[in-house]
Specification:
6-stranded parallel beta sheet; 208 residues; Rossmann fold; two-stranded antiparallel sheet; alpha/beta; single chain; 23% strand
């Protein structure tokens, strides 16, 4: 079975959000169009406590974009985003959720960030997504969402490591692009590691 993964399509990652991804809203119609072609749709949700260690505001004198060491890992500091119980953590209003079978929350531990939908950044704790997908008989995942150079990339890389055939839908993701070209670098890295990168039209044709 194939599964469609919707990574972190939340208000804070949309153009007016706290950690805005340029053109992030433009992926939503593409994602909505893809959903009916899949038997299983799963969404991930960044869901941080307010005192999360990745927030620059929680470190005196630090600004977003600076780096610290958090739990032994290099950690870029972000603006406060996707805090539990806030509107920013909610899914985009125009994202269709009626086909979503389950929501996997991530980033709950204040001491470690979690880009991937499968594990925290230190691979210390699983979200349970691998077991869920394997129990459903999933062999291939199609990854969409925000952002291409962080949560989408690391979700796709972990999917490969967990033994899933992995496709990234290129026009159903956008990048933070802290540096020019980060989107292309992410796509290249994913191809090198064994993922396929496809356009949504190709996916629809394949699944029709």
């Amino acid at each position: 079975m194939d599964a469609l993964l919707l990574v972190d399509i939340q208000n804070d990652f949309l153009p007016d959000g706290a950690l805005a991804v340029k053109e992030g809203d433009q992926i939503i119609p593409v994602v909505n169009e893809l959903q009916p072609y899949f038997e299983l749709v799963v969404a991930t949700q960044d869901f941080h406590p307010a005192d999360h260690g990745s927030f620059a505001a929680n470190h005196s004198g630090k600004k977003p974009g600076e780096y610290i060491i958090l739990e032994g890992l290099e950690q870029i500091l972000w603006p406060v985003h996707c805090v539990q119980g806030t509107a920013g953590a909610e899914f985009a209003k125009t994202l269709k959720m009626n086909q979503v079978a389950t929501v996997v929350k991530k980033g709950l531990d204040k001491n470690i960030d979690s880009y991937s939908g499968f594990y925290d950044n230190g691979h210390k704790r699983s979200t349970g997504l691998t077991r869920y997908l394997k129990d459903k008989g999933v062999h291939r995942v199609f990854v969409t969402g925000l952002a291409a150079d962080y949560c989408v990339k690391f979700t796709a890389l972990d999917a490969l490591k967990e033994g899933f055939k992995t496709v990234v839908v290129q026009d159903a993701t956008r990048a933070v692009n802290l540096e020019e070209g980060d989107f292309e670098k992410a796509m290249d890295e994913l191809r090198e590691k064994g993922a396929k990168v496809m356009q949504s039209k190709e996916v629809v044709k394949m699944k029709s």
